[in-house]
Design goal:
By secondary structure, the chain is mostly helical. Helix content is 77%, strand content 0%.
């Protein structure tokens, strides 16, 4: 035990000797106490490295400003350089560097602001370019479809007028041209094969589209109850239009037929309980005023009064066809509309074909021989009416329904130019005003139901754009949303139309 205690004391004795020597050395140095700063600089560095902490260093650095440094005495500067405040000479010399930081910060902040403005400007340009490209593409297709509708309706009216001069058989022309609707479903199926991702066989597509006629599909009961009545309305519409076209110029006939949209609104307001809109009531009043002025243009005692009455009756039958179709059958999809028109053409070919034959045999309609039939004009009328019906029902895939309907009213001035060149109509002041009033009423009917709300949204979006300082992407997307909202609401109101 004594040996262990002696060994432990022996191991501890060097440490004790070291502490004693260190204390003696410090006492000796303190007792010497040199009076010059150059003599005590090593001791000051040793003391500051042992005592000063990192937090106290940061507080001392942050507390001393530029003014304190400039107002300090020479001795304090020497103490700082020698390390009395816990920093070396290099660190002390770097204390003056923050004087240039505000300038660098201002330069970096101005550069960042320039970058933000440049990026926002680039986003604005890209957004506008994207909008321009999209709307230009839609506008080009819309203009193409509108011109096709205009030319097909105008051409069919002019050719029908020429055919009636050489063949006085309106019901035969109606039966022949309506029978061409059988081609619509095959044309639709060809488009389905070309552009659809999920292709179906003709039988599968036919059965799927036949569900529109009932749960049982295409049956004799469905054809007699859902197709034949509308086929009669279709035939009556075309027959009255051709009868009126025999007595009045194509310009007046095409303008008066535009009133069918106003009649459809009035019937929908009564039968379908649709929303009351003051703008459309004004459009209906303008259409009726245009009809009266059209009658007054040639005098109330002329033969044109009967022609105007027949064309107005044709427009009324077309409006009745649209309203009853929506009441009993609802809205049809593209394939269902194509199948329905094909079935209607087939029913017209089978059931109505007997009536023109009886009229020709009885002499009610004039036809001396088949060699005198103007087959070119007759086939031209049927083909143009087929194109017109195809675009009216399937043009919504390409452009807005409003632009498609706009092609109908644009056929009126085109017919007026053709009739003026052929000297078939006298464009007096009353007739021009009547045509303008009917066209204005038709254009007012093209406005959507919430056109006022859409204008307010567009105005608020533009106002927000002018007030926005830099964020133009939200405004751009908001304007695009308003435009798409308007177009989608117009496309949702698409209905099955007829000429």
């Amino acid at each position: 035990m004594q040996r262990a205690e002696q060994s432990a004391q022996a191991t501890c004795s060097p440490h004790r000797n070291r502490t004693k020597s260190f204390s003696r050395g410090t006492r000796g140095t303190l007792e010497k106490s040199p009076r010059r700063l150059s003599d005590i600089s090593p001791q000051l560095q040793q003391l500051t490295s042992l005592v000063a902490a990192d937090d106290s260093k940061e507080e001392l650095k942050s507390s001393r400003s530029v003014e304190d440094i400039s107002n300090t005495s020479i001795e304090e500067r020497i103490l700082k350089i020698t390390g009395y405040y816990g920093c070396t000479g290099e660190e002390a010399s770097s204390d003056r560097a923050p004087l240039s930081k505000p300038d660098e910060f201002s330069m970096t902040s101005s550069g960042s602001q320039a970058d933000v403005s440049r990026t926002s400007r680039g986003r604005r340009v890209r957004c506008y370019l994207r909008l321009i490209v999209v709307h230009l593409h839609q506008a080009l297709w819309g203009v193409a479809v509108t011109m096709c509708v205009c030319w097909s309706w105008c051409g069919s009216t002019q050719l029908a007028k020429e055919t009636l001069r050489r063949l006085n058989a309106p019901l035969t022309i109606t039966w022949f041209s309506t029978s061409w609707n059988c081609i619509l479903f095959p044309l639709y199926y060809l488009g389905h094969l070309c552009w659809s991702t999920e292709r179906q066989s003709p039988r599968q597509r036919f059965r799927e589209c036949c569900r529109f006629l009932g749960e049982e599909g295409l049956t004799r009961r469905g054809v007699m109850g859902r197709v034949v009545p509308f086929g009669l309305l279709w035939t009556l519409t075309c027959y009255l239009y051709l009868q009126g076209l025999r007595l009045i110029p194509p310009t007046d006939a095409s303008a008066l037929f535009c009133c069918s949209r106003a009649f459809a609104f009035l019937l929908s307001w009564v039968v379908l309980r649709q929303r009351f809109l003051g703008v459309r009531i004004v459009a209906a009043i303008l259409s009726i005023a245009g009809i009266v002025m059209m009658t007054y243009a040639d005098g109330f005692h002329s033969y044109s009064v009967f022609g105007i009455s027949l064309v107005v009756g044709s427009a009324s039958m077309a409006a009745l066809y649209k309203v009853l179709f929506r009441l009993f059958l609802g809205s049809a999809k593209l394939g269902e509309a194509a199948l329905y028109l094909s079935v209607l053409g087939g029913a017209n070919l089978v059931f109505v074909g007997v009536v023109p034959l009886l009229l020709l045999l009885s002499g009610a309609e004039e036809l001396d021989s088949f060699e005198e039939v103007p087959w070119g004009c007759l086939c031209g009328v049927a083909a143009l009416l087929l194109v017109f019906n195809f675009l009216m029902n399937f043009g919504v895939l390409i452009t807005l329904p409003t632009l498609i309907s706009l092609g109908v009213v644009l056929s009126v001035p085109l017919n007026a130019v053709i009739d003026r060149c052929a000297s078939e109509v006298q464009l007096n002041t009353v007739r021009v005003v009547a045509l303008s009033v009917i066209g204005l009423g038709f254009l007012l009917l093209l406005l959507p139901e919430d056109w006022d709300q859409s204008l307010l949204q567009l105005r608020s979006a533009l106002h927000h754009y002018h007030q926005a300082p830099g964020g133009t992407s939200e405004t751009c997307t908001e304007t695009t949303h308003v435009l798409k909202n308007c177009s989608s609401k117009q496309a949702s109101t698409m209905e099955l139309t007829s000429h």
